TrEMBL record:
Protein name, as recorded: Protein GrpE
PANTHER family (UniProt xref): GRPE PROTEIN (PTHR21237), GRPE PROTEIN HOMOLOG, MITOCHONDRIAL (PTHR21237:SF23)
Subunit structure: Homodimer.
Basic and acidic residues biased stretches: 1-17, 71-80
The UniProt record lists the keyword Chaperone: yes
Organism: Roseburia lenta
Localization (cell): Cytoplasm
Compositional bias annotation for Acidic residues: 45-56
Pfam families reported for this sequence: GrpE
Keyword vocabulary terms for this entry: Chaperone, Cytoplasm, Stress response
UniProt similarity note: Belongs to the GrpE family.
Region Disordered, annotated ranges: 1-80
Free-text function comment from the UniProt entry: Participates actively in the response to hyperosmotic and heat shock by preventing the aggregation of stress-denatured proteins, in association with DnaK and GrpE. It is the nucleotide exchange factor for DnaK and may function as a thermosensor. Unfolded proteins bind initially to DnaJ; upon interaction with the DnaJ-bound protein, DnaK hydrolyzes its bound ATP, resulting in the formation of a stable complex. GrpE releases ADP from DnaK; ATP binding to DnaK triggers the release of the substrate protein, thus completing the reaction cycle.
Amino acid sequence: MAEEKKQEDREEVKVDETVETETSEEKDTESTEAGEAAATKEEAEEKEESAEEAEEEKGNGGFFKKKEKKDKKDAQIEELTDKVRRQMAEFENFRKRSEKEKSQMYEVGAKSILEKILPVVDNFERGLKGMEESEDPFAQGMQMIYKQLMTSLEEAGVSPIEALGNEFDPNFHNAVMHVEDEEAGESEIVEEFQKGYMYHDTVLRHSMVKVAN
């Protein structure tokens, strides 16, 4: 009977030891799991912070890159605008120069043609001299043609230079003779041998005159 009781006590001791061992293992397991969970949480937080820092750095880098790209784009726009302005200025200068050259070429061509017409006018005037009052139909027809020719020249910008009775001006007159005449004023034109003409503001042909005193 005593032996059975001792056997039961031994079994109870073993059960208690087993329970204690299991409890200790459970505590160790729980402690390990808690530690691992804490470590995992810390790692997660560190990763999250690293991700946030990386994102922030990336965001700042993107901002600077965008700003740098915008500055470069503005510089290119300014450069292109400057080129366009220069080209427009060059084109405007070219246009003005072309118009001036065209105008000069036109004037040179017109003067060349008009200079060839003036001898015809001179011959008309010589042929009509003394026929102003004639009632001959031929003479009247020639008078009409002469007037038409002079009207056309006037419309083209040709006008005669006033000479007879005016003071000699070397810019408009060509003195081929000089006489002393008490009745005439100083440097007065007393006779015109060949009529001079202006083309707008340019002398087309100087008047050939005789100057007194």
